[in-house]
Amino acid sequence: AKDPVRVLVTGAAGQIGYALVPMIARGVMLGADQPVILHMLDIPPAAEALNGVKMELVDAAFPLLKGVVATTDVVEACTGVNIAVMVGGFPRKEGMERKDVMSKNVSIYKSQASALEKHAAANCKVLVVANPANTNALILKEFAPSIPEKNISCLTRLDHNRALGQISERLNVQVSDVKNVIIWGNHSSTQYPDVNHASVNTPAGAKAVRELVSDDAWLNGEFITTVQQRGAAIIKARKLSSALSAASAACDHIRDWVLGTPEGTWVSMGVYSDGSYNVPAGLIYSFPVTCQNGEWKIVQGLPIDEFSRKKLDLTAEELSEEKALAYSCLS
Ligand code: NAX
User: Fold this and answer.
1) Whose CA is nearest to atom 17 of ligand 1?
2) pLDDT at 92 exceeding the cut of 90
3) pTM of model > 0.95
4) Which residues bind substrate (predicted)?
């Protein structure tokens, strides 16, 4: 039998945490043959709720779940973890300045970076979910210099999956037959959902989404805004933000990163830019990636048309601004 993998979930008493921990304990993230030990971190005001989640995990009697650490101590939470899913953060409240929210998250991610750097297992993989996800991941990277940058990522897989879902609904095809959409840039409304390289499996072989939809006005307009604004649409409908879809996307992100992407398929991940596609180096930016042997690689050489170029640049500009704002919070 395999040794258990230790998976940290921060903000585990929150909404996404509540959807995510049972998925991990059922093997959705790491496979049905991979035992896990869950480490759950939250802050003292949520300690009792966190303990309630732990009680439910015990009551669920998950065969793969070999232990649960539920704590408000960041060092205890980070010790020995192989995977860290960072869901905890400071939410933007009505009337708050962007800078104030950024400042709270910078201080959270700075201190959690140090705890991970000192106490996590060697080669720990980190996924930041909490918003502003790309910039929180960048701060984490800056303050955990001994964690290789290739091990730090942020979640844009939910946006990627939303794009697959929209194409599947529009064409009335199975979502599993749609592939290779791309989310470029920030996990925010400036992200660019790109279908220029996406395809659908049909009985007659793979067909380009552009060819099958053949409505460029929709693909260049409503499709993009629907994906960009989907988070707000969920809040409007549910009076709560996305949780089950975010948790499911976090599992997809880690699973593909650890176990690999299928041949011929790429996914979107927020990763440290090396300057590919003329995206400024040193930003955490969402790119198309393939994964093999536990490592992601940016898909190279995709042609970028003028329409796309503008959108790639716009979301990069927003990330550069966020980065500057985050740094101004440090001084
Ligand atoms: P909740 O407010 O339900 O849960 C957040 C939890 O984090 C709370 O239990 C809170 O006590 C805890 N927390 C706060 N500060 C902490 C700290 N310093 N250490 C540990 N825990 C801490 O929010 P939820 O709906 O679960 O969303 C969590 C985060 O995900 C938010 O930042 C949200 O904006 C972000 N999202 C990101 C998405 C993405 O695709 N990247 C999509 C979904 C979601 O909106």
Assistant:
1) 88
2) no
3) yes
4) 92, 98, 131, 162
pLDDT in tens, 214-250: 999 999 999 999 999 999 999 999 999 999 999 999 9
| Residue from 131, 153, 254, 285 whose mutation best tests the ligand 1 pocket (most atoms within 8 A of CB) | 131
Mutate-to-test residue for ligand 1 from 75, 116, 129, highest number of ligand atoms within 8 A of CB: 129
Angle at which helices 306-330 and 133-142 pack, to 10 degrees?
Answer: 50
Is 13 known as a binding-site position? yes
Binding site membership of 241 for ligand 1 (Cβ less than 6 Å) = yes
And the tokens for 113?
């970076």
Q: Is 24 assigned to a binding site?
A: no
The pLDDT tens digits of the residues spanning 265-294 come to 999 999 999 999 999 999 999 999 999 999
- At 327, which amino acid appears? Y
ipTM for the complex shown? 0.99
